[in-house]
Amino acid sequence: MLQDIKSLTREELETQFAAWKQPKYRVAQLLEWLYVHRVTSWEAMTNLPKPLREKLKENFSFQTLELLRKQGAPVLRSNTAEGGRDTTQKFLWRLHDHSLIESVLIPANPALYGEASDRHTLCVSTQVGCAYGCKFCASGLDGWKRNLTPDEIVEQVLAVERWHGVQSKVESRESSAGSRPSSLDPRLIDNLVIMGMGEPLANYDHLLQALRILNAPWGGGIGARKITISTSGLAPQIRRLADEPLQFRLAISLHGATDEVRNKIMPVNRKYPLKELVAACEEYQGQKGRMLTFEYILIAGVNDSIEQAKPLAALARRLFAKVNLIPYNKVEGLPWERPAEEVQEKFLAALEKQKVIATLRREKGHDIDAACGQLRLKIERELKTVPA
Ligand code: SAH
Ligand code: SF4
Predict the structure, then answer these.
(1) If you ran DSSP here, which 8-state letter would residue 58 be given?
(2) Rounded to whole angstroms, how far apart are CA atoms 362 and 345?
(3) Which of 28, 76, 191, 212 has the fewest CB atoms within 10 Å, i.e. the most exposed one?
(4) Which residue in the list 54, 102, 123, 307 is annotated as catalytic?
(5) Buried b (16+ CB within 10 A) or exposed e, 316-343
(6) Residue minimizing CA distance to atom 10 of ligand 1
(7) Which DSSP string do the residues of 231-281 spell out, in sequence order?
(8) Is 97 exposed, middle or buried (0-12, 13-18, 19+ CB in 10 A)?
(9) Is 296 in the pocket of ligand 2 (CB under 6 A)?
(10) Quick one: pLDDT at residue 142?
(11) Residue 109 CB burial class (10 angstroms; 0-12, 13-18, ≥19)
(12) Cα–ligand 1 centroid distance for 15 (angstroms)
């Protein structure tokens, strides 16, 4: 299979174009079509000579994602004068081999950014399925299928921005103000969280290539400090990431502050127990400064007792990590439940008492905010039950 054009960095394209004896400015033109206009066909690149377009077509694929389903409010009415409100949007994409992956678009929290804000965070997937089999997670339920290629990671950002461009045009036609952004306006997504389906650090090379493209000024233009990679705890890859020149933020899916609890719910802990994970985090911390977050899903009767707050606080203080407490999202077919609200609040208070910076996700309607992997699981099961 051909490599996709959106898997290449500017430098790699320049080498290729030099070999074809094409002037350098042609690369700049190509990049503008890909990452500013976000076109979906070679034919749309009208200022590239036809023979060059033919050559590109012969040597590279040019894939886009097919939107299979979307959950969320039908029209994105961000910060409109009418008082419309942005809501979370979940996208289910079909890949060329018919695999399904998810991305989630999360609007900025007005409480954090003040009144009007066009900031958006996108949560992207890095694999189809996941091999790590955490007991509470929908993404790993049907195992691992394959790694995403760099372009499939990059394209999640572009496809959502394209979708938003179309929404904005519909809105501007409907509203008298008529001044919604077009697809040429500044980027919609300025924050990236690698927390969708899959274990990002198990697809290390493709992930890093995609992030180079998404970070570059000629590409996605998303600052490295605005990119958070979440891992279940792959210690050797955390060390490798510490040596990368880019300063990404790192989130550790801890979910247990002792080996006993982690072993129960996260098989990866048997391979890389806490001692090893903490040592790798310290190395990351040493190289990158204070850029660590612990994700801690609160699961009733598993990790939500007040006694657990003590070792968690000790780890957070040792690594200067912030703690994000996330009430568990129910997954169909799994026995786990989220604790009562007062249990969640008590756990948070216990951490704060021990001088740890912690937050608790409090939103009520968590249907579509549910962790990645759930929509895909539901639709795949539906598709399996529907005769072809
Ligand atoms: N594999 C990586 C990134 C993807 S999972 C990781 O594990 O970090 C992204 C986050 O969603 C992780 O913190 C994961 O533990 C969490 N998660 C998975 N299932 C969840 C559920 N049902 N409710 C709440 N969070 C969940
Ligand atoms: Fe994989 Fe992360 Fe889900 Fe664990 S929580 S199964 S590592 S996607």
Answers:
(1) H
(2) 10
(3) 28
(4) 102
(5) beebebbbbbbbbbbbeeeebebbeeeb
(6) 195
(7) ES--HHHHHHHHTSSS--EEEEE---SSHHHHHHH-THHHHS-HHHHHHHH
(8) exposed
(9) no
(10) 84
(11) exposed
(12) 39
Identity at 163, one-letter amino acid code: W
Q: Of ligand 2's atoms, which has the minimum distance to the CA of residue 230?
A: 2
What pLDDT is recorded for position 343?
A: 98
- Residue listed under structure tokens 């097919």: 66
**Which residues in the chain belong to E strands, given as ranges?**
66-71, 89-94, 100-107, 120-123, 127-129, 144-147, 189-194, 227-231, 249-253, 292-298, 322-327, 358-360
Closest CA relative to residue 357, chosen from 333, 310, 312, 321: 321
Exposed, middle or buried: residue 289 (CB in 10 Å: 0-12, 13-18, 19+)?
exposed
In the prediction, which pLDDT does 113 show? Answer: 44
134 carries an active-site annotation:
no
Instruction: Give CA–CA dist 132/143, Å, rounded.
Output: 8
- Could you give the angle at the alpha carbon of 74 between the alpha carbons of 72 and 80, nearest 5°? 100
Amino acid at position 71, single letter = Q
